[in-house]
Amino acid sequence: MKKERVALVTGAGRGLGREIAVGLAGGCRVVAVHYHRGRAAALETAAAVRAAGAASRVLPANLARETEAVRLVRAVEKEFGRLDILVNNVGPFLSKPWAELAGADWEAMFRGNLLASFFTLREALPGMRRRGWGRIINIGFGRVEQAAAFPTVAAYAAAKSGLLILTRTAASTEAGTGVTVNMVSPGLLKGGRLPAAAGIKPGAMGTYADVARAVLFLASDAAAAVTGTNLLVASTWKM
Fold it and tell me: What domains sit in the chain, N to C, each tagged with a CATH number?
């Protein structure tokens, strides 16, 4: 990555988002840290980004609201002059028997996991296209490719499946512009949210660092010919 790059990581206050933001710091001039409610945690991430060699700024937004998502992207572009790398990490998780889901549960999953990424992606694309270079990486989940039964995470799985379709659609339309759009889909991660499943061996679980390394590759110049892909990381589990 060239040190002039400006990156934005959504949901970067902790966990996987923090790992990705700090990882990007080594190859970027700026890594903007988005948060919704956890400002203190976001400030810690920003401090870690600075320690790793990049400038940083924390920016709040409820990305389920289109106006706030648009404002977030525009704030980064206005302050730093560009946005080269967008990592759509934010995405709420809900584990609940499907028959008990309310309409509000479905809406929350689709707004948080699909529409939030759609809003930021759509707003970031024009500037990337003008500059002839851009990387958009959406975070999926380990079984997003499977049209299967998901008794306890149906709404979440459906939203992430929609995000995969969005990823590949955007990748197809941006082919030849210098902008790539990909997905990284984590399976079970140490410290992450686990499904109600028995017999999970700790050694079979991945780490935030494993996922971050995949994101860093897709954000690099080396991945210029990789677009529309879904890269599975630590995806060896069943639900």
Answer: 6-233 (3.40.50.720)
- Phi then psi for residue 195, to 5 deg, are -75, 165
E strands along the chain, which residues? 6-9, 30-35, 55-60, 85-88, 134-139, 179-186, 230-233
Give tens-digit pLDDT for 155-188: 999 999 999 999 999 999 999 999 999 999 998 7
- The percentage of the chain sitting over the pLDDT mark of 70, rounded to a whole number, equals 91
Say whether 156 is catalytic.
Answer: yes
Q: What is the DSSP string of 153-184?
A: THHHHHHHHHHHHHHHHHHHHTTTTTEEEEEE
Q: What is the pLDDT of residues 181-214, one digit of tens each?
A: 999 999 878 766 655 554 566 566 889 999 999 9
Q: Catalytic one among 156, 161, 166, 215? A: 156
Q: Stretch 125-132: mean pLDDT, rounded? A: 98
Residue with tokens 């549960």: 105
Q: Is 95 helix (H, G, I), strand (E, B) or coil?
A: coil
Residues 6 or more apart whose CB falls under 8 angstroms from that of 93 comprise 153, 156, 193
Distance in angstroms (rounded) separating the CA atoms of residues 237 and 69: 33
Q: Please name which of 217, 125, 216 lies closest in space to residue 179, comparing C-alpha atoms.
A: 125
**How far is 227 from 23, CA to CA, in rounded Å?**
21
The pTM (predicted TM-score) of the whole model is: 0.92
